[in-house]
Amino acid sequence: MSARTVAVVVTEEIRLASWDLYELSIPCTVFGQPQSDLADPWYHLMVCGTGTQERPQGAVAGTGLALRTDHGLDDLVGADTVIVPSVPDACVEEGRPLPEALVLALRRAYEAGARMVSLCTGAFALAEAGLLDGRRATAHWLHTAQLAERYPKVQVDDSVLYVDDGDVLTSAGLTAGLDLCLHLVRRDHGAHVANRLARRMVVPAHRPGGQAQFIDLSVPETDDEALAPVLDWARSHLDQPIAVGDLARRAAMSPRTFYRRLQEATGSTPLQWLLTQRLGRAQDLLESTNLSIEKIGELSGLGTANNLRHHFLNHIGVSPSEYRRAFPQTVPSTGSDLEPQLRTV
């Protein structure tokens, strides 16, 4: 084994979805393509299959694509870095057990001194192996609640792109895996090499903020017929002051009853719910208009530009200006005819 051996685990039996293929390709691209002008030696990449499927090892059903690996789980022991890009959807959504051989192999690799890494749902494999117990970790924000519920010993953080806990690292989903892989290069070879590699791959060397800026802030559906029209009204009047008492009166409830019903329906308190909606409106305006930060603060009900920046940094993880650069508008808008439309959103 070389000093920089990276073992990437193909965990399926194996029916990879398109996003799983994307996450598998990230470490293969970063660590598998020689970059001798940046660092020599570079990394030695091994793609290791679980070896549990009846089809050829690594075969991807329904895509016309097959991955035939020369390495199995026994090759994880001795690798310097072990990366689990994803696990089968059924293991996340349906609670299907992960292959026991995979879990045991991950434990043996860690005990042998490997640096353990997961991308997206690969965190479920590290958690099942007990490698995330007592540690801060992340995964794609769509799955962090399931990760936290299934593995209560893990300190799940859904706001970050990746977590570096020394010898165990985890990332959010999809492109956040590239952020983490570049971070590993930065750790191993320094910022200059990582920056040059990022430029070569036409990606930022480091993205500001975390995955909080990508979380969908839309309101959860509710079957509470008394709340639905009140929440619709509030969303169309976010540019106005709204008190909890106003919402309770519109719902013909006492403030205490309204508080309880809303929390049961959405999981949020009234003030949390309002703030989430105002932030969502501000995000939408930043993405779809060229209105000033001051005007967006006013139309979203967040007040001054300073107040908007404060809430964005606290809850989204980036400033409004950084968010706007990350999500540039696709349809030019002056915003001149925007305010009347807000009432009908």
Automatic annotation (TrEMBL):
Keywords assigned: DNA-binding, Transcription, Transcription regulation
TM regions (residue ranges): none
Domain of life: Bacteria
UniProt key word Oxidoreductase: no
PROSITE patterns named among the record's database cross-references: HTH_ARAC_FAMILY_1, HTH_ARAC_FAMILY_2
InterPro entries, per the entry: Class_I_gatase-like, DJ-1/PfpI, Homeodomain-like_sf, HTH_AraC, HTH_AraC-typ_CS, INH-QAR
Domain HTH araC/xylS-type: 228-326
Designated name of the protein: Helix-turn-helix domain-containing protein
Organism: Streptomyces spirodelae
